[in-house]
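Working notes for the structural subgroup meeting. M.R. asked for a predicted model of this chain before we commit to crystallization trials. I am recording the input and output together here so anyone reviewing the notebook later can reproduce the run.

Input as submitted:
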Amino acid sequence: MTRLFVGIPSAGRKGILSDTLAHLSRQVRRPDKVILCTPDDEDDQTPDFDRALDLIHIRAPKGSCSQRNAMLDLLKDEAGILLIIDDDFFVHRQYLDAIETIMQARPDIALANGHIIKDGIIGPGIPVAEANRMLDETPADPTRPATVRDKIVGYGCNMAIRLEHARDVRFDENLPLYGWLEDVDFSHQLSRSGKIVDVSAISGVHLGIKMGRTPGKKFGYSQIVNPIYLIRKGSMKPRHALFLMARNMAMNVTRSVSPEPYLDRRGRLYGNLLGLCDILRGRINPRAVALLDQPRPG
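Returned structure, recorded in token form:
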């Protein structure tokens, strides 16, 4: 039987973790191990959970990339599947059973994404009760053949990674904090040894909780600087990167007049402008986002 691990990077959101872990404890096919990784500078973030789950809690420097890498490093000698999910991603009870079956049948798959029933990241977020209802109303039909569709980029909120393909692949820790576009770079690296796919038979709900996310100014800076960095690295095509930059900046400009109550559009726009200024000066360093609250050089 394939070894199946679940990794959850989290920071400052202990409250939602108990609900996320509850869905893992209800899986038809239980995970062999759950790895929770929180920042090494935070107080204890171990939530309440079903003790039947084999859970270990590790620490790493804060940042989605460094915390995910800590999980990959822990499993560097293991074979099997590591499903990395956001701490606010609720998995359907058939998720692990289905992904194990599909990846056993398709050894060419390096990374698989499940179907997102609803993604709260593009709105105000989804309440826990509503997410639970959506999962309850999504039946699993084991007789229905799964659709596996090739894609170019995996989506970071739920990615099942074949560990044998990731021996020498890591998330780029030069993309700090939220790690904007880290999944694009990671997918680019993995695609050299296997396929990146969407799988219809696995599903979940991404709540998109706004608490604990990167502040608007810093996120806006990353929206501009990270794509240029990835163009130079060779992980993004210029056309795709420039399209994302233009789209995000246009949205921040137009919605700054009457911003959504759950997003700091003006902060994002300010961060966009700071990023553009640094690019024009030849400063293309995503890590500079951590220094935005300090006096800036001329």
